[in-house]
Amino acid sequence: MAECNETLRELYQFLDGELTDADRHHIQQHLDDCSPCLAAFDFEAELRLVVRNRCVDTVPDALRDRIARAIEEAG
Ligand SMILES: [Zn+2]
User: Could you tell me the distance, in angstroms and rounded to a whole number, from the CA of residue 21 to the centre of ligand 1?
Assistant: First the structure.
């Protein structure tokens, strides 16, 4: 699915906050419909936070909820 490749490519820019509102909305819509891409997004987002905080052992469950809410609010 070409849409998936495009979304995953833009995922990194999304996480870096380098996309326009239109681009984010586009990704947002795809993530709503495509659980594999949403899982990839979750993984990347968590990975970045873990690496940033350097606390590999403690990725709280609340983080997953926060990401989900952030995605919702971004849409
Ligand atoms: Zn997809």
Answer: 19
The model's pTM is: 0.57
> Would the pLDDT of 38 be above 60?
yes
Q: Over the stretch 46-65, which tens digit does the pLDDT of each residue have?
A: 888 877 776 555 557 777 78
Residues in CB range of 38: below 8 A, 6 or more apart: 31, 32
CB of 31 within 8 A of CB of 7?
yes
Are 46 and 59 in contact by the 8 Å Cβ rule? The answer is: yes
7 and 30 Cβ atoms separated by less than 8 Å: yes
Domain range for 50 = 2-74
d(CA 60, CA 39): 16
Residues bordering ligand 1, an ion, CB closer than 5 Å? 4, 34, 37
How many domains is the chain partitioned into structurally?
Answer: 1
